[in-house]
Design goal:
Length: about 180
């Protein structure tokens, strides 16, 4: 998995969940392009830039968690709009400090030395995106099978509360960790 992928919470259709997965993959593509272009190394070398990305990511996680906690449970027959699922996935990964660290520090060390650096990094980025799409897409399709259970109001409320608390806790943890 890529990190703190956003869930569409309990009101998400399988289509919206797959769009969120597409946004997550786009976030990986963004980090991959920055890495191949060498801009990710600049971000990694700048404590101020790293802090800004970290705090923006933490704030976004807290925002998603608060939204999950305070959102009224939707009617069982209606699936309300949850905003733009693709954008949610993109922002989640673009501001995810773990993805920043992965692409700036770890991924370059995995590049095969016999290939030109840009090609090697591009192949690794594409592999990571393919694995993420496969894993998260399979996860979405599996959860779609459990939809009748997940549509029960008590289950939805419990999942919304759990999701909210976990996202807020992750946001606080991200904000409070040392660089």
């Amino acid at each position: 998995m890529s990190g703190s992928e956003p869930c569409c919470q309990d009101s998400c259709s399988p289509g919206d969940a797959l769009r969120t997965v597409g946004g997550v993959a786009t976030g990986l593509l963004l980090w991959g392009a920055l890495t191949v272009a060498g801009l990710a190394a600049v971000l990694a070398a700048s404590p101020a830039a790293h802090l800004i990305v970290k705090l923006l990511g933490a704030a976004y996680l807290v925002f998603l968690g608060a939204q999950a906690l305070w959102q009224s449970p939707p009617a069982e027959t209606a699936v309300p709009a949850v905003g733009n699922p693709w954008r949610t996935g993109l922002i989640s990964n673009a501001l995810n400090p773990k993805i920043a660290v992965f692409y700036t520090a770890l991924l370059p060390t995995l590049a095969p030395p016999h290939l030109p650096a840009a090609w090697a990094m591009t192949l690794l980025v594409l592999l990571h995106i393919t694995l993420t799409l496969t894993w998260l897409g399979s996860y979405v399709l599996l959860l779609a099978k459990a939809e009748p259970l997940l549509r029960r109001p008590t289950v939805r409320r419990a999942l919304g509360r759990i999701t909210g608390v976990v996202l807020i806790a992750f946001g606080v943890a991200v904000a409070s960790t040392a660089p």
